[in-house]
Fold this protein.
Amino acid sequence: KICDGLGPGFPVPVEIVPFCHEHTMRVIGGLPSCAGCKPVLRMGSAANNQVDGDEIAVTDNGNYIVDLHFEDPIKDPKTMATELKNVVGVVEHGLFCDMATAVIIAGSDGISVKEA
């Protein structure tokens, strides 16, 4: 989906270990690169970012998912990715920086390619 910036409109998922998950969520929320985010523990199915149950969503690896909700675009996704990976308890995140050189976009007026 084409957007002006990452963050608003779709939360950034972060997989964390269950042990001390509340502390991990507080640390994530306090990161300078995550300023303005609201960390929310995913409830229900781990397969989507919708609340569809009252149990904590658990991944195939037995971990939890925290969705980071932003009202404003993320200012520096690369720094945020690094800071998240450096938090004890974070397994992985949904920021895929420097992993693609082009984007293929399909729309009602055809297909276009945007190069990095």
Remarks:
- Strands lie at 12-16, 38-41, 64-69, 90-93, 102-107, 110-115.
- The first helix runs from residue 21 to 29.
